[in-house]
Amino acid sequence: MDTFSKSVEEMSINSEEPPQEYVVKDCSFGSIESSDPSPGSIPVIDISIFSLSSSHDPQEVENELEKLRSALSSGGCFQAIGHGIPSSLLDKLREVAKKFFALPAEEKHKYSRAANEFEGYGQDRVVSEKQILDWSSRLSLKVFPEDQRRLNFWPENPSDFKDILHEYAVKLKGVMDILFKAMEKSLNLVEGSFSSQFGDNSLIKARFNFYPPCSRPDMVLGVKAHSDRSGATVLLQDDEVGGLQIFKDDKWINVPVIPHALVVNLGDQMQIMSNGIFKSPLHRVLTNKDKLRISVATFNEPEPDKEIGPVEHLIDEKRPRLYRNVKNFAAFNYECFQKGKVALEEAKI
Ligand SMILES: O=C(O)CCC(=O)C(=O)O
Ligand SMILES: [Fe+2]
């Protein structure tokens, strides 16, 4: 068996030196050591204030909307508290994820992803020989629309995996709705300016990330620097182990672990819809020598066939249209990636 087909889980158990394919050589966004270890400036926003049932003072709401607008137009990222998803459910979601990744390899391979597909269990999609591989395994599942679920990829073991993911996804959809309304309000847009662009059958995809310990955290990344191709991404981090970093003001900033907060970062499609006002941040994940890390990312994407583009109200002489309309951005993004191009740049006018 060549090193290429060995899983990171296997290599981690044997404390193997990572093969060349995993070693980050020339990173155009700064080397791994260039990380700024100082506590960063990722804002924490109490989003309970944005919910319909909230009876807060209008000035207080206004202040929080301003905080949201500022977070999304600078770093493109914040930590949401007051989201209303019970802590016990978040703990259970991390628990079923841990149990799944702890299964024997043969058991997990029942859910293996086909080479050219995104759903299922596996590692990076390899598109070029020069590609540096991520030190992680993933399980990707489409959760909405519900009738598009491919349940053969949803683990039978642990037996409560499906129910817990479903319960989380339903609650998360509610959180996303609140967030989109707040984002629209924060830019004085009419309700639906962003959300209606997603269509009635918008997608929510979940990605369970597993980062086993790595003997060379100085040379290998859990996930290479990337921006998400989603509209918005909500991430449940590990409750103990950090590693996620956001590129902000030309520095890598650590996203602190707040066990029951949800990290919200925008994806490329919201940068397009907001005509570049909101940012889709570059982010990456460091590896850890001793501890494994788990995260669950959920991506909200427009219906693939729906054309999206900058909201008219955000285009004027001072801020001319930056992006053209695009559709099926996920496929477009993948195509660009294969050609070594950046999708967001290619969508520019
Ligand atoms: O594991 C994390 O903290 C981030 C994962 C991520 O960026 C992704 O799945 O797109
Ligand atoms: Fe990401």
Automatic annotation (TrEMBL):
Transmembrane feature ranges: none
Gene Ontology terms for molecular function: L-ascorbic acid binding; metal ion binding; oxidoreductase activity
Gene3D superfamilies per UniProt: B-lactam Antibiotic, Isopenicillin N Synthase, Chain (2.60.120.330)
PROSITE patterns listed in its UniProt record: FE2OG_OXY
InterPro entries, A to Z: DIOX_N, IPNS-like_FE2OG_OXY, IPNS-like_sf, Oxoglu/Fe-dep_dioxygenase_dom, Plant_2OG-oxidoreductases
Region entry Disordered, spans: 1-21
Regions of compositional bias (Polar residues) in chain numbering: 1-17
Domain Fe2OG dioxygenase: 202-302
Entry annotated with the keyword Oxidoreductase: yes
Record's protein name: Fe2OG dioxygenase domain-containing protein
Organism in which the protein naturally occurs: Quercus rubra (Northern red oak)
